[in-house]
Design brief:
Number of helices: 1
Distance between the termini: 33 Å
Number of strands: 10
Structural class: mainly beta
Strand content: 35-45%
Largest sheet: 7 strands, mixed
Shape: globular
Radius of gyration: 14 Å
């Protein structure tokens, strides 16, 4: 299966070859700040990601062990990767439809914003 996606302005576009992990929603403070709400992402092995247009892609070191990829032109949050893991998380909202993916889990829910509730459904981890 092939998935495609990219940022809002098109300065970053990509293809993904093969299966993608179900979507995980992260409610930690870093993810909320970088995404503006909740970071919902799938994950793949690095070699599955093919960048078609990388003109706007920039990386921000968000911690001692991870970095986040975003578009420097339109500001879209696109990727997250942990050093040495060999995997990359892709923001689910940047995928072109249909994705065929489903929500698997909510993580770091103890850190979620106080302005919303998480509906019953997928498992939640504090």
């Amino acid at each position: 299966m092939k998935h495609t996606g990219g940022c809002l302005c098109g300065a970053v576009s990509y293809e993904v070859e093969g299966d993608m992990r179900p979507v995980v929603a992260c409610h930690c403070s870093q993810c909320r700040k970088t995404s503006g709400h909740v970071w919902a992402s799938s994950q793949i092995d690095d070699h599955q990601l093919v960048l078609i247009n990388r003109d706007g892609l920039r990386w921000y070191r968000s911690s001692e062990t991870a970095e986040r990829g975003f578009c420097a032109v339109c500001g879209s949050s696109l990727f997250w990767r942990l050093d040495g893991e060999g995997r990359i998380s892709i923001a689910a909202g940047t995928l072109n439809l249909p994705t065929g993916l489903s929500m698997a889990e909510h993580i770091f829910v103890a850190d979620k914003g106080d302005y919303y509730e998480i509906e019953p459904g997928p498992p939640q981890s504090p």
